[in-house]
Structure formats: structure tokens, C-alpha cells
Protein 1
Amino acid sequence: MQKPTVTKVLSAVFMVVIAFTALFPLAWMAIAGFKGRDEVLRSPFQFFPDVWRWQNYVEIAQDEAFSKAMVVTFAGAAIFTVCSLLVNSMAAYAFARLDFVGKQFWWVYCIMPMFIPMMAILLTSFVVVVELGMLNTMAVLIIPGVASSFQMFFLRQFYLNYPLAVEEAALVDGASRWKIYTTIFLPQSKAPFVVVGIASFLAYWNSYVWPVLTITDPDLMQIMQLLGTFRSDRGNDWGMLMAGSTLAALPTIVLVLIFQRYIVNGVRIAGMK
């Protein structure tokens, strides 16, 4: 009886350490949002502020540029997520279930970008969107990143696990490939779609380098891009920056908390092959 007890205690301690390590930076950021201009980087380190400055959060929430950036970024992330799910799931279904000429070649071609760092193709990608006249448009933030080799691979693994007999029965009944995809595969894809959807949303929401390169219009400025200008625009007001960062992190935190059960289930199902 002693061994299982010791194991449970060690497991509990390990989980507490992991949780503390993961949550401490978020807690510090939220608390730092209540600090004054010079308190955040004070030495020696001080976790709590001398005076709680609630006006930091009030002021940043009422800032028109910040509010507009949050709305524009959220709208762009939602559109990007829907497009990513549609494009990558169709590609994954084709590679998992269809036979066509050059299938192996095109599969290698599609997943190859997964092994190429983004920075290695950043300049060439920028030249392409400049030549296409896409700068300062929502399209330049959405279209280049819609097709994802990782998401194709992830969804393909899920579709490979689906029983072949169901698809064959539908084909015998006269269903087209498109109907099979929309009426059989899509309704069964909730779990992996949540994983892929959240990954797409987070990738768009947290993007910084690409918006800085391609967006100069204040009406299209993204939230991370806006936060990057805080140091210069607000005179190194670190407390205000931490307040803005906390508010910017809330949508993604809430999203993950709501769908955490589906995330775990989706990863488990997709990895069964």
C-alpha cells in the first residue's frame, strides 16, 4: 500500500511544479499590469506592486487603437481559421482517401514546408506579395498562411484511421466523393478540427513579424504589432504594456480552456495510426 501512495504523491508534486512553471509567467504579467512605469523592471525583483494602479487596465481598454486592433485581429483570426480548416481538411482527405497520378510526389511536396524555417522564406514571400499588390490588405495576412503542411499531415492521420467500409458503402449507394467528405468525414472531424482550428487561431493571433512587414495602415494594425509599438509610443511604460499584453492574451486563454477536452481527445485520436 505504501508504493502507490508514494507514486501518487510524487505525481501530484510533479504536476504542481509543472502547473506553477506554466502559470507563473502569466500571473506575473497580469500583476505587472497594475504596476507603475518603473516598477516592472525594478531590482531586486518584486512580485506585487507598491500601489495597485487599476487605471492601467482601464486606460488601455478604452484606447481606441487598442480596441480596434483587438477587433480587427479577432476577425482576421476567425476568417483565417475557417479557411485553414476548409483548405487543409480537403487536402488531407484527398491524400488519405483518393488515388491520383503523382500522389506520393505531391504529398512530399506539400509536407516539405514543415521542415523549412519560416525565416528562410520570409524575404521571398514578401517579394511575392509585393508583386501581387497585396500589401496593406487583410488578404496578405490570411492567404499566404492558409495552407499548412502540419495541419494537412495531422488531419490526414485522422482520416487514415476512419473505417474504409463506411466510405465503400456510401460509394455503393451512389454518393460522390464530395458528398462523402461533407456528410461523413466533416461531421466526424470535430476533435481534430478543434486542435487544428485553435492552432490556426493562435498562429494568426500571435503573428508579429509578418504583419510588421506587410501592414502599415493603422486601420489594419494587428494586436501584437500594436503592442510592439508601446515602448516607443508610450515612453517605456512597462505597466501599461503588461496590461495590454494581459488583455491581448485573454481571448486565446479562454479559447484553450473552453476546448481543452477536445484538444486532448483530438491529439489522441490523430495519433492512433
Note: The mean pLDDT is 86.
Protein 2
Amino acid sequence: MSGPAAGGPGERIVVALDVPTLEEASDLAAALAGEVGWLKVGLELFAAHGPDAVRAVADHAPVFLDLKLHDIPTTVERAAARVADLGVGLLTVHASGGPAMIEGAVRGLGGQGEVLAVTVLTSMREDDLAAVGQPGAAEQVPNLARVAVEAGAPGLVCAPPDLRAVRAAVGPDVRLVTPGVRPVGASADDQARVATPAGAVADGADLLVIGRPITRADDPVAAARAIAAELPTP
């Protein structure tokens, strides 16, 4: 398995393989091998192909399995144990599942990968949060971040506008991952709170999740290289 040049800016990039078929995912993964740090398998691909999707992608780069688990602690722990069997490097759970659930996910992975706790989805606006009885992002995101880290999560997922507040809340040693990253001039698509790649890194992001600006580009490799060129080295 190859990766970007050691310490190179491409290591910061996580490509979201949000495609419907295993063939498309495998072709993208093969093309992007050595260009980016991680390849993300999300719900669509996993629902269609299950563990085979992870195995196909893992031949080319470390896998970030984005399932956003949210269930009772025992169920999440058992699911995380099955994920550990696949050799996944990163696994998402919802921070709102609470400390016991997060602790279960960490136990389930057993050190075979890292739990990333999702704070508030990047698609949610302030009125969306209010509609489900949650405080605004400025309050809710740092609160969930602290809960997750205290429960043992070594990493967090948060929207670009929340990065500075989350870093202040949890300190320098927690991995911060941000979706909603769009190069200058790219469409925001269904993301409500976005940033440019360089802006997200400047605000404290360690990894940037980028999907359509790369996967739907005429030349995905060139698109990934162009984004990497905007970034500082880790």
C-alpha cells in the first residue's frame, strides 16, 4: 500500500468515495493511491457492498469508515469490534450517543483503529438544530467535543466554522477532521458550513474530507494534486 510522500500535504486529504458501485470506488481508489492520505467509505458504498467495499479500498490506502454509529453502547461496541476485524483506521460515531456509547466504540476497536466522534453535521444550520431541541453550534459543538474526548475518543469531526472553538476546548493532541471543505470556486452542494482547504488547516484541521470536487472532476488525480498544492505540510 502506498501513500503520499512522507510528511507531504496530500496526507491531509481524505477522499470521500461516495459512489454507488464497487467498480467506481475501486477505480478511484487505484487512481488516487499515493496521492492522498485516506480513502473514506461511507454509508452508500457500505450499504451496497458491506465489508467488500472496505477490502477493495484498503488495497490502495488506509480506510476511514464513516458509519456514524449511534445506538446503545453494547451494540456499538460489537459493531466496532467487527470493524476492527476489517483493519479500518478510522471509524465515526455520533458524539451525541453519549459517554458510554463512545467508550464502547473505543473498546470495540481495541486499538486497531481510532474512533472519531461526530459533533454536529455540516449540513445542519442553526434553525435545524433548534428544530431538534439542540443549542446553537457555538455551544453544542464544543460541549459534545469535550464529552467525546473525556470518554476516550482520540479524534473529532466538526464543521470548518467550529474548528477554532473545538481546538480551544480539547487542546492540541486530539485529531480534528473536517468535512465541508471546498476549493475556491467549487459548489457547496448540500453542505451548509464550508471552508477552503487552506482555511480549514489554518483554523486547526488535521484532516480534510473532500468528495465531489475530486471524485467528480474530469481528472480526479489532478484535482487532488491541485488541492494538496494549496496546503502546508503536516
Note: The two ends are 20 Å apart (CA to CA).
Protein 3
Amino acid sequence: MASELFDLSGKVAIVTGGNGGIGLGMARGLAEAGADIAIVGRNEAKSNAAVDDIRQCGGKAISVVADVTDKAAVVTMAGLVARELGRIDILVNNAGINIRKPPHVLDIEEWDSVIKTNLTSAFLCSQAVYPAMKAAGGGKIINIGSMMSIFGVSFTPAYAASKGGIVQFTRSCACAWAADNIQANAVLPGWIDTDLTKRARVEIDGLHDRVLARTPAARWGAIGDFVGIAVFLASSASDFVTGTAIPIDGGYSIMG
């Protein structure tokens, strides 16, 4: 039956940065499809609130406080999730930050911070969960990229570099781990209504109107728009889909 393709009952998902925005939207969707969820982040209070949210939807969830840019912390996190929830089947690499400055004024410390949070964390977390996924006979890795994975803008050099890197890293994992039945795919959000983009609309004059003018769907995205793609890429429905980078943008990336 088609519904069985999307059933995540008995599966365990780690969602980094899953305590808000797109990450929380994906975590909710995975939980509603039957998965147990580990919310990973540095803000304990926010993560605990996200866990309560998921539990109210009927899902099992735990909060793990970890700095996903630190290898030792990531290894500890993966071990804790495997012990508490029994296995690791799905990893959503969603943790991310942005510093909006043109290249000629961006400090090296700011560059390093964005690259480590957005790209290095995906490498560390993927590497950490690989043994558990291989032992389980397969797994799903979902990396969160951006429109900046494919477009350039003047004010996000480090963010764009990190998100471009996410796409290439995804392809490398897809090739390297196909024999282990691990599929790796990237999702490229367009302009989504989150706390991060609320700040962008304050910092960038005219952004709201420009986004609406270019988006065929004529609206900003909502975190609920990521439920379907999360469940698809985490489920057996996508077993022959790997190495892709899928825009979730209301048509923004194809508008002429």
C-alpha cells in the first residue's frame, strides 16, 4: 500500500537545530509519520519546548544539548541517542546561522563561525551516525541547503559558500554510502517565514516585496511546507532517490 511507503514507525530521527523554524517543522512531520525524534541544539530551554510540542502530537521525543561543531560532542550525542532511543535511522542536518555582510568587511572569525555551524556540523553528524545506519542496514540523511546553494548575493558570502558546500557534500555521501543502503539528499529552502528571515526583512530594504514579486506561488513559505519533503526523504518512498538537491521555494528558483 502507498501509505506504508511513508510509514516511519519504529524509526529514530535526529534533527539538529530542530527546536525552531524549518527544523521543527520537519521534526513534527517525522513524528506524525511515526518516528521517534531527538532534537539536538545548544538552547536547552528551546529544545525542551520543541520536545513538548512533538509529544503533544503523540510522538516520542528527547532533547540533547550539544555543540554540533565539536567532534567529541557530536560523537557523544550520537551515542546517547542510540542508547536512549535504540537506533539511528534518519539524520536531518539543519543547524545553521547567517551573518549578513559583504565579503570585504566579513571577519575571518565570522566566516569560520558560519562555515563550522552550517557545513562542518553536517560532516561531523553524518560521520557520527554512519556506523549505526550501516549496522541497521540503511539510513536517510537530509541536509538543509538554501537558495544560496545555487544563487549568489552580495551580503552572504560565508552562508552561500557553506550552502553550496552542503550540496556537494550531499553528493559525496550519496556516492560513498550507496552500497550501505544510505540515501543522502539536500533540501533547498526558498524564502521561508522564520525568525531568521524576519530579521532579514528588517536588515534588507524591500526584501519582502522582491520575494513576492519573484515567487510564482506569490507567498513566503511556511515551516509546514517542509513536512511532506521530510517524510518523503526519510521514508522508503525515496529509496531510489539519492544525491539530489530539491528546491522547496514556491517556484522562486525557476522564475525568469
Note: The chain has one domain: 2-246.
